Amino acid sequence: MIIVMQQGASETEIRGVEARLQELGFQTHPIYGVERTVIGAIGDKRNGHAEVILNLPGVERIIPILRPYKLVAREVKSETSCIQVRGVTIGGEGVVVMAGPCAVESEVQLIAAAKAVKEAGGHILRGGAFKPRTSPYSFQGLEEEGLKLLANAREATGLPVVTEVIDTRDVEVVERYADILQIGARNMQNFRLLREVGQAKKPVLLKRGLAATVEEWLMAAEYIAAAGNHKIILCERGIRTYETGLRNTLDLSAVPLVKELSHLPVIVDPSHATGNYRMVPPLAKAAVAAGADGLMIEVHPDPARALCDGPQSLTPERFAALMVEIERVATAVGRAYYPSEGRVRKLAQA
Ligand code: PEP
Ligand code: MN
Q1: What is the Å distance from ligand 2's center to 127 Cα?
Q2: Cα gap 120→80, rounded to integer Å
Q3: Is the CB of 185 under 6 A from ligand 1?
Q4: Residue ranges of the domains in the chain?
């Protein structure tokens, strides 16, 4: 259930309600909104404690949450959650672009990609150091060495870094270097891993599973929130359907649906959704038009030589051209797109 506190309820009142709920055996999650605070209370609702709680100072009303996910449900919070990462806001007015290579391959490759992303107006650098490959014989990533290169690239460009963690044993090291922890599609229902990143301090980017329903995806997000981490970004990256024309089928309908069901920001990855660089620009634009809070796009300085996902990677030139179009679409649908400093400088010089 959700305990809605009165507008202007004091911190003491909020703490008091939390303490009483905990005494009654509930796990509490205060969520501070712009207008008022609500407290998500997870526990056995058969005990009939509603009357007791309702009479506590500062409580306005109690709302039962009927959906299986609670903390991530829109009912808990009417405004979209904003996630701040080194000065970049995900879930705000602006469309946020995360871009970079599929895998960190070398210092030269990563720095070239990071500079291209920054100059074109991207906000966050992506790059896999631990790669969840379908084949055990494919390149598996540079692991900690790759994380160090990502941290160097952040140093060189100022771009925050998002990278995947594929094992509970690696959460600590990934969190040490990265700004956002990515949970890949293949691990969306790895519940131990979800609980582990739920205990991390850094935000989590949760990709939709290859064959997951929207409800299963939100339940996975609920695992992270229930473990204490409310800084969650959802990422639609295409699902398996009977259609084989492209690598996956991008479910763009999930964007407005998730926005209705949940307060979490949602971004779209047209690169993994299609596996084909030619499909990336039209779907990236469609995603922004459909209300996505951001995009994740693979960019490689030399896609033909990429160790991973070359066919879906944009060259720096194609990425820069797409960013100009994204700005137009964002403006057309009443969203903003704030290009990074690099591009602002370039535009000013033009
Ligand atoms: C990735 O973003 O590097 C990746 C492996 O994507 P997904 O988990 O969506 O397949
Ligand atoms: Mn990839």
Answers
A1: 9
A2: 27
A3: yes
A4: 2-63, 83-349
